[in-house]
Amino acid sequence: MSGAGASKVLDLQVRERGEVVVVIVHGEVDMASAPQLGAALEEAQRGGKPLVVDMSEVDFLGSAGLSVLLVASEAQQARLRVVASDAVRRPIELTALDELLSVFPSLDAALAADGSSTAS
To answer: Could you tell me if 59 and 87 are in contact, meaning their C-beta atoms sit under 8 angstroms apart?
Structure first.
């Protein structure tokens, strides 16, 4: 995804893997790039398929990015599945967002999960 207002530090790809939409995120998710991620997640959710956000290649996740994940989580019928790098996992755990999201160490693990569990 690219455009005039797109952040230069964020690269997004959207792929379908069977009945699941995977949004692959590379780079940094900060105040400048979070709207780009939010738009991609919103678009990916339009088809109603389960969503996996692969953030295994994200180097920084700021509060704006956490907010985007929260909004995307609230729009999902099942728990939002997030593949987290260490830089992503730490802020998710520190803010207790891991109680609303399903966090996985790999894309394969996230795809293998059925996504039917609900937030506790």
So the answer is: yes
